[in-house]
């Protein structure tokens, strides 16, 4: 019971701080028309926590994102999860389907990344939910894949 209360408190504090951070960020964001024509994306605009992606997918829809998570590669189950435990418990809503770019797929030995924490960069699609619609979205055209130590 104590463990459940601790986890619940941690989740509440995470969501609360996320909400506060979003309010301060929205005041400093440029007009959406400026963002569409900008060729340069600021690092802090795409290097986000996976928690933000899970909680506010609409904010990152069709945008380039870079996240860290636990990668599982298997038939009908290629996904990156918030934590290893999410994968082990089958919590696919806390995971994102992954789809690698052709360039990366040709030159990568995916075995060395499977079942490890990795950092990936790709375009987020909140409407594509992966195999059987089980996931929280899709990171597609992944152009970066590195083991996270």
Structural notes for this entry:
- This protein has about 150 residues and is of the alpha+beta class.
- The protein has 2 domains: about 1-35; about 40-145, OB fold (Dihydrolipoamide Acetyltransferase, E2P) (Beta Barrel), CATH 2.40.50.
- The chain contains 7 helices and 5 strands, in the order H-H-H-H-H-E-E-H-E-H-E-E.
- A 5-stranded mixed barrel has the order 1-2-3-5-4.
- It is globular and about 45 Å long.
- Mean pLDDT is about 80; it is low at about 25-40.
Structure at a glance:
The chain has 149 residues and is an alpha+beta fold.
Name the features.
149 residues, 5 strands, alpha+beta, 2 domains, OB fold (Dihydrolipoamide Acetyltransferase, E2P), five-stranded mixed barrel
Helix content: 25-40%
Shape: globular
Class based on secondary structure composition and strand pairing:
alpha+beta
Name the CATH superfamily assignment of the largest domain.
Nucleic acid-binding proteins
User: pLDDT average, as an integer?
Assistant: 81
Q: What is the H/E order?
A: HHHHHEEHEHEE
Instruction: Give the domain tally.
Output: 2
CATH class label of the largest domain = Mainly Beta
Sheet with most strands: 5 strands, mixed, barrel
- Note the gap between the termini: 32 Å
Proper CATH architecture of the largest domain: Beta Barrel
Residue runs with pLDDT of under 50 for 5 or more positions: 24-39
Strand order of the largest sheet: 1-2-3-5-4
C-alpha-based Rg, rounded: 16 Å
β-strand percent reads 25-35%
What CATH calls the topology of the largest domain is OB fold (Dihydrolipoamide Acetyltransferase, E2P)
